[in-house]
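Hello again, I could really use a second opinion on something today. I've been staring at a protein lately and its backbone has me curious. Can you walk me through what the tokens say about the fold? Take your time with it, there's no hurry, and the full record follows here:
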Amino acid sequence: MTDVSRFRLYPTSTQRAALLEQCAHARYVWNLALEQWSMWTRDRGPVPGFAEQCRQLTEARAEFAWLRAGSQTVQQQALRDFDQAVKNFFGGTHRRPTWRKAGRRLGFRIVGQQAARVKKLSRKWAAANIPKIGWVRFRLSRAVPAAKSYRVTCDSAGNWHLAFAVVPPPIPGPGTGQTVGVDRGVTVAAALSTGELLFSPASSEASQVQRKDLQRRLSRSRPGSRRSQKLKASIAKIDERAKNRRKDWVEKTSTDLARRFDLIRVEDLRVSHMVRRPGPKKDPDRPGSFLPNNRRAKAGLHRGILANGWAMLVQRLEDKAPGRVQKVPAAYTSQTCSACGHCAPDNRKSQAVFQCAACGHQANADVNAAINIAAGRAVSARRETPVRVSLKREPQLTTSA
């Protein structure tokens, strides 16, 4: 498990152009290696490995001056990253390597002694030595970790960042044996079994209106024009601010939960499948036509799920509290009474109101679901009496000295 300690880079205009050129070289080498790997046939023998591709890179740098002008360290590291991506793909832990497109996810990685070449300029500023570019200033917002590698990236808003890959120590539990259930939702980002309701910072109404106006103007501009590029950059800045607010909320919430509770139980949700685009439904009566599939309504649900960081919250909890996060089946947890165990659709009166039809227990619907999750309860598809989930192993709770 690795964490990313990211700092904001402030390159000059000349350095910014050189950084873009380095990103282009890394993208070109990656795509060339991917093309070679994808089109290789068995009659040619084994696929060229990292060492053979480095030899071919040396020959290409001797032939092409534009490639030789870039950093060999950056280009070789792109080949090393691709070799690791192929190994991860065959190992079953990652997806198949894909093409890197121009203008999207720009960046390159530096590994080795170069990663330690950072000097402090003042209390708030430091500089990193990037190959073939020189010293680039970055904001010293926290202590620089002792990392063996760093990655230079550029986001969609045009901001440059310096990210160090480190392995942070896990956050120890309080040792009280307390268990908390976390119910994730769209209106309430996270409801705890303790009764707390946590809300993800949403974009202001003014920024939403501004974004819609920019999108309307973008639809009327000519594709590829300067006006369209400026509008895209303005929209990207608004989206980047919303993304940073969401990440900040997830980091603070996950750290708080890891420090306060020894065991954290969440719903076992496959978020990547939940936010997929609905498939078309063919009309059997009219060949070539399709039935309504509620695509627009589901798109609004997708935006709500992504805006509340469902998957990111659980991932950061597992990173900060390893072995102390358990996933509970989410079947009918919102329809089951946490007091008597009665399960019925009529129990949930609305999005926020839960009233049991059997015992009359009233509570917030999200908090009631969180209590069921904390208890590890699940029901069958026939909505029978809730039973406690048999978890495979209980985490070893650490006791404070």
